[in-house]
Amino acid sequence: MIDLSLFNILESAIILAIFCLFYKVFLNKETFFKLNRLYLLSSLLFALIIPFLYVNIGGFANQVSSGNDIMNKISGIKQGYNEINEVIIYAYSGKLTWSVIKDYLSIIYIFGVLISGVFFVFGLGKIIIMIFKSSSQKYDGYRIIESPQAIVPFSLFKWIIINPDKYSSDDMKQIIAHERMHAFQLHSFDLIFIEVLVILFWFNPFIYWYRKSIREVHEYLADEAVVENGFDRLDYQQLLLSQVTDSRLVGLTSRFSYSLSKNRLKMLTMMKSKNISKTKIILAIPFALAFIFFFTNSTEFAKATNNNSLEKEIVAFEDTSKVETEVELEGEILFVAEVMPKFQGKGADEFRLFIRENLKYPEEAQKQEIDGRVFVSFVIDKNGNVRNVKIERGVHSALDEEAIRVVKLSPKWEPGRKDGKFVNVQYTFPIVFKLK
Fold first, then answer.
1. What span, in angstroms and rounded, lies between the C-alpha atoms of 426 and 403?
2. Which domain holds residue 195?
3. What is the largest CA-CA distance in the chain?
4. In this predicted model, what pLDDT tens digit does every residue of 216-242 receive, in sequence order?
5. Beta bridge partners of 88
6. Residue 296 φ/ψ, nearest 5 degrees
7. What is 120-179 written as a DSSP string?
8. Count of C-beta atoms within a 10 Å radius of residue 413
9. Is residue 221 within 8 Å of residue 35, measured between CB atoms?
10. What's the predicted TM-score (pTM) here?
């Protein structure tokens, strides 16, 4: 289970903001629209995935030199969080804590997703009803839906919805040619993708900028294709000027009048960008590499930050000598094995029940009203023993000690196997201490 923390969400917003700024400065006024479309979609996907992945870059470099398997060079998603879900233990306090605030924020997030989803489904439903209630005709592999309810022409996949009473036959040909380009270039898939992301990340303002930019690029591509296919440029520009409305049914449709015609007219009259301008996109590569390095190591970053802010407590914690000295294990340490270790004959997630039954909220932490999420890592060695228990990201010495104590209580596991041989497998999982 991926830990969608506020920290990760903030990282995602930062990446989106920088990619947005890069597009505005270097690419927005260029006329290589296909490349711009690729940039927008790939940078969007990159920004939303990278903060929620953990790649042990330091370990990766070391393992490359030893020639280990590629699956062991990347720790997977959050080092096995998908194997062991978080364990939550509650204490009780009458005061509002950060943990409680995060619970409220989670409720607000879910409520926002539901509201956005309802609007999306409602808009999609209106389109579907319009399609099935209206007369239609086939046209060169597409279906023209003639509906008096269509305030402006729009398309969805191979459906082109238009009110024929509003346009002359010549205008109809140009509009249908435009919407066919949307269908031919599979723009509806882009729009569905971005609308789903808008629902999931409704709180991020940059996601709306991405939606606007992707839709604009779609229109530029369709306009360009219509003119290149032999339609008169001046007549087509006059048709664009006549389309001043911008009503919205749902975001996954391509609309002929989308975006006020000013920008589209400007793009139609601009000189083509020189091919050498395409090299501007190379400038985005250093940013992408920096994001991979910094944001996929967020656990280590947070751990280092915590070490600085809680130096005194951590020194005291280390002086207790309760931290197990890391044992050098024979063979490589995997994050994913062909056969994963089993806890008492069951899946690794069963380990959560053992932790919950034996975990105690330290009284010291309750008195000081301290709570938070402690990330613990450990290795199941070739003999099934729990080894190298350590804190990847701590909160307070009392909570950290309790997390290590309860993990060390674990009985033997059935070790993991690869190629028929027992192997060392590492897990990382969060233990959440909550005041309530």
1. 16
2. 109-277
3. 85
4. 899 888 888 888 888 887 777 777 766
5. 432
6. -85, -5
7. HHHHHHHHHHHHHHSEEEEETTEEEEE-TT-SS-EEETTEEEE-GGGS-HHHHHHHHHHH
8. 22
9. no
10. 0.59
